[in-house]
Design goal:
By secondary structure, the chain is of the alpha/beta class. The protein contains 9 helices and 9 strands. About 30% of the residues are buried.
Amino acid sequence: MGTYLGQNFLIDAKVRQYIADHILKLYEDLGCEALIEIGPGKGAITRLIKDVSPNFYVIEKDTTLKLHLNEILDPPNPPPMGTSNPPNPPLSRGTILWGDVLDVDIHSIECRGTSDAEKKKINTKKTLVVGNLPYYITSPIMRKFFSDPRLPHFVRNDKASARNDDSGFAGGIFMVQDEVALRLDSDVKKKSYLRWLLNYAYQVKYLKGVPAKCFKPAPKVKSALIELRTKNLELRPDFQSMIKFLDLYSPFTRKTLGAIEKMIDKRFADKSPGVSCDDKSLSGDKKIKSFTIPEHLRKKRLEELKREELGEIL
């Protein structure tokens, strides 16, 4: 956990050790087999967690940090004269994946130490992801790792067999903006769009606030650590239905669910007079999933819904 083209370096030794200890504990608690660190920067945390897993990977965009990371991850002997270094050299303590985390194909990462003949992919269902996330793209990163509809966590049990069962990430520990951390916590009363996505399959816990003075240069906002653990729940709403509902209702956070339902019905009626919005004969842009809001929930706002109440609607 370090920097990501403009982020801030963590310089507080106590906080660094706190993070490393929690990473090790969560890795062991979840029975993980691989560890991915996003944005290691100069390797402040990397130094402390490089031996946690035999399958350790760091994703970094800033190539000016190559010397720092190569030194920490203990590079092998130089290649023979006349040959060039591979793009992601197999360092003895870990593998560096150079590039933007949003562009990295996380489902094609291969286990360290496997031969070309084996080409075994990491079991992402037993992979822990950690990092100091760039505050301006926290949401896209979290969605990529923890709310991908291809993952088995988001597929009903009767369909899971048709999917790759080695896909869902086990959990994570992240440094994010404090305001974001508070909104994502599982116990928060007012729920954001991202909070709904993450809490669908994960328990999100606020671990610790981190003051600006713990970084260099000091950011203008307070930071915080959060922890994600997979939920062991079999009964949950259909993920795709939840996405459709959130896409329809989340733009109107100040309005009650009953008022939003009327707006959606009226909007559709104006465009397609005499046709029901959930008519199965419709297709493409004309098709809108209809949701009926129970009478006892009509005066609630989206952010006030409980998990079981969302299930009633879907």
